[in-house]
Amino acid sequence: MRSLLGLICVIVAASFYLYSLSLYLPAGPRRRPLNAADRDHVGAESEHPTDTSEEPSRLKFPADLEELRELAELLQFYKTQHNTYVLLLFCSAYLYKQSFAIPGSSFLNILAGAIFGPYEGLLLACVLTTLGATMCYLLSQAFGKQYIVNLFPDKVSMLQRKVEDNQDCLFFFLLFLRFFPMTPNWFLNMSAPIVNIPITFFFCSVFIGLLPYNFICVQTGVMLSEVSSLDDLVSWERLLQLLGIACMALVPSALIRRFSQRRLKLDVRSTNGLTEKKVQ
């Protein structure tokens, strides 16, 4: 009971910090009122009256390509005027999501590429993913061991058995789990201290193992921030870029898979139980 109360206190404190930080959101760019020519053009296309008052831009979760571009442009504006605040807000939101195993890392990685560019965005994504996963590891170690075992007894037992079978090459086994996840990343983050995975191995395996995934997401964000329509996205230049990104991401995966076939002891079953593959 004490561990549950401690975890609740940590979540409340982190949520309060993130909420307090959002209260200091600077004023964004305001939409310019339409001039007479624009009003005539809009009026000719629509029978509905057009609101010409200035409205501040607001942050919202994007539902399509255009909204993602608008959000990226808005945050780029904030970054130009308030670089430290945008960096702090992005890092805080990312660590909050990762520490408490909240879905959405792919969106934040794409946003990192759109806002910070290919190099700074990739560095941020890798560092924040690793730090957030390590914080999840420490929270589980301090507060959640008994609850995770009670909620997922079969999965914890299976992972424990595989860790014991691969003790002689544990680091490469962890890399394999990141490249070819037998279990979701959030579950591996929470269960790692329970199955006695050293935090140093865990930290390094997250940084290296999720590098291809982060790279693809960040590069996608860079491209989405540069295209103005879906027609630009399917151009030959973009297709070649996507091909290059895929090749660079697949190289380390192929190396890890080749090593796993020689050294690791794995029983890989499909989710529907129709196939079974044993690697020794």
From TrEMBL:
<dbReference type="GO" id="GO:0016020">
    <property type="term" value="C:membrane"/>
</dbReference>
<feature type="domain" description="VTT">
    <location>
        <begin position="102"/>
        <end position="221"/>
    </location>
</feature>
<protein>
    <submittedName>
        <fullName>Transmembrane protein 41aa</fullName>
    </submittedName>
</protein>
<keyword id="KW-0812">Transmembrane</keyword>
<keyword id="KW-0732">Signal</keyword>
<comment type="similarity">
    <text>Belongs to the TMEM41 family.</text>
</comment>
<keyword id="KW-1133">Transmembrane helix</keyword>
<feature type="region of interest" description="Disordered">
    <location>
        <begin position="38"/>
        <end position="58"/>
    </location>
</feature>
<dbReference type="InterPro" id="IPR032816">
    <property type="entry name" value="VTT_dom"/>
</dbReference>
<keyword id="KW-0472">Membrane</keyword>
<dbReference type="Pfam" id="PF09335">
    <property type="entry name" value="VTT_dom"/>
</dbReference>
<dbReference type="InterPro" id="IPR045014">
    <property type="entry name" value="TM41A/B"/>
</dbReference>
